[in-house]
Design goal:
Chain lengths: ~290, ~240
């Protein structure tokens, strides 16, 4: 029953889906991994961005073009959300953690309610030349949309990695959670640094959201499907590593795909949570913590 | 092209705890000034006032730089750094998970320093060969002495006019203390810096200091114009030399 072909196909699909998981986790890798913000609304932001892509798509825009257009508004949206979080919670210190989680839970809920009221509960899709067609490689058919996702995921990972390691602002973002005071004495403002970084994390979520609706139909409550997966990827990667996030996404994708092939679809969603718990128990610093 | 800091009747502390009670000091262009005093007498608090980390309750801190007068008590830390003051803080405060090189690059964050980053980096690697050797290692993996060198080099990367150094000797073996102090003296000459150094280790500090103040219980107990004057004072004899 387990032919070599079947296994091979499962791994290939796992890698492609893994690229998708990585792409939608990069924003969280910055927000939670680098900034220590308990951003459980990340998956809701992905869904919000997917709907914005849908909205622009209804005017005939290609989802990838739409992704580029929503990046800037999402950046400013992220800046505002962080500013509010900072003023209301982080600035007061102490138990910001738990109350911060409640804050982001509330935001996720609001996004979901907003989407339900505005767009209804029906599933929404977009169309593009690469959606619905496949590339035939021998016996395998690889959907073009997954190839598009692969390219975007790699470009986004490389882009963020270069930004975070080669620019002054990027290095400051990586330093801010390690020692905010020390950042001050090199002449940077830690609050503005985090605010900017959260904007970038949200802009990355905008691109992730466009990929989300390219990959599958969306509905307002879809964030539930991705919250566990994105946190699993970020924790597995080791908080805050971009290339680690890509590799962790691939690992989750392949394991999920193998489980799906061997045990059936109903087990697949449990993989992310299982892996998350396993990592936290065995290697809480993740695989690629610097 | 001169710098000068004037502190007048400075009162400062932490909430209800008053630490500094009316400090008046002067930092003159091109000198190495020692702030001496034993544990808990307010040296670091004074340093933190200079860098904008502790706000004075009373008194003034004025920076004159190239003919411009600035009230440091009104500026934030990053603004003060932008005006060319840089600190090697107590406890070093490196970014432990970033590499040595990334720590140095972050030192050059302020706009005026970015233009000189490669020149300054070359100089730091030249002056501290151990940093060059370990440039791709996480800063947190180095020994205490090496980390102190990195903290000094990072402060230098911001191309400061005034360098504040808070107890470079803490936690270092005696040989490393001498090295660190000697390096500070060397860098001062090389870059024409003005240096303010807080130090408990009187003997080491006086190897490079031109003059000094002694802080006792948050007040200036002695202001000495020369190293010799300090050394011969009754206070120093009593505090450090056990007589
Ligand atoms: N963050 C703080 N909150 C409250 N009190 C503080 C704080 N930092 C320092 N103090 C107190 O202020 C006083 C002066 O401390 P400061 O650090 O300025 O002394 P110091 O001369 O630098 O001493 P050391 O040689 O130990 O570094 C001490 O009594 C200390 O307990
Ligand atoms: Mg001190």
């Amino acid at each position: 029953m387990f032919s070599f072909e079947l296994l091979f196909e499962a791994v290939v699909f796992g890698l492609l889906v893994g690229c998708f998981y990585a792409a939608i986790s990069l924003g969280l890798s910055i927000a939670f991994g680098l900034l220590d913000v308990p951003h459980i609304a990340h998956a809701a932001f992905l869904v919000l961005a997917a709907y914005m892509t849908f909205l622009l798509g209804s005017y005939g825009l290609d989802p990838l073009v739409a992704a580029v257009l929503i990046v800037i508004p999402f950046f400013f949206f992220g800046v505002l959300v962080y500013r509010f979080y900072y003023e209301a919670f982080e600035k007061r210190g102490a138990d910001a953690g738990v109350r911060g989680i409640a804050f982001f839970f509330g935001i996720a809920f609001l996004v979901q309610v907003f989407l339900s009221m505005k767009f209804g509960l029906d599933q929404r899709t977009v169309s593009a030349p690469y959606i619905g067609r496949s590339l035939e490689l021998g016996d395998m058919r690889i959907p073009w949309r997954l190839i598009v996702v692969l390219c975007v995921a790699i470009a986004l990972t490389v882009g963020l990695k270069l930004y975070l390691s080669k620019t002054f602002q990027g290095r400051a973002i990586r330093a801010v959670a390690q020692d905010a005071w020390a950042l001050r004495i090199v002449g940077a403002n830690p609050v503005l640094t985090k605010q900017w970084a959260f904007g970038i994390a949200t802009a990355a979520a905008a691109i992730g959201g466009a990929l989300l609706i390219i990959v599958s139909p969306v509905e307002p409550s879809l964030d539930r499907v991705y919250i566990g997966r994105t946190f699993c990827v970020v924790v597995l990667a080791g908080l805050g590593s971009m290339s680690g996030t890509l590799v962790a996404g691939l690992i989750l994708g392949v394991i999920e795909s193998l489980v799906l092939t061997m045990f059936g679809a109903s087990w697949a969603p449990a993989v992310a949570y299982g892996l998350l718990l396993l990592v936290l128990a065995i290697r809480p610093q993740g695989l690629f913590r610097q | 092209m001169a710098v000068k800091i004037t502190v007048q009747e400075l009162h400062a502390g932490y909430g209800a705890v008053q630490v500094l009670h009316g400090i008046s000091i002067e930092v003159r262009d091109g000198e190495t000034l020692a702030l001496l005093g034993t544990n808990g007498n307010g040296k670091s608090t004074l340093m933190k006032c200079l860098i904008g980390d502790v706000r004075p309750n009373l008194g003034q801190i004025t920076l004159e730089i190239d003919g411009v007068r600035l009230d440091l008590a009104q500026l934030s830390t990053n603004q003060i750094v932008d005006f060319g003051i840089s600190i090697v803080p107590e406890g070093r405060r490196l970014f432990p998970q970033l590499t040595v090189e990334e720590n140095l690059q972050l030192g050059a964050y302020r706009k005026a320093a970015r233009a000189k980053i490669s020149e300054n980096l070359d100089y730091c690697y030249d002056a501290f060969s151990i940093l060059k050797e370990k440039r791709h290692q996480p800063a947190g993996s180095m020994s205490g002495g090496q980390q102190q060198m990195l903290a000094i080099a990072r402060a230098l990367m911001s191309s400061p006019r005034i360098l504040l150094v808070d107890e470079p000797s803490v936690g270092l073996a005696p040989i490393m203390v001498s090295q660190a102090i000697a390096k500070i003296g060397e860098l001062k000459e090389r870059f024409g810096l003005t240096v303010v150094m807080a130090e408990q280790n009187f003997q080491e500090a006086m190897r490079i200091a031109d003059r000094g103040y002694v802080l006792v219980h948050g007040e200036i107990a002695l202001a000495a114009e020369t190293a010799a004057e300090l050394k011969n004072s009754d206070l120093i004899q009593q505090l450090y030399l056990g007589t």
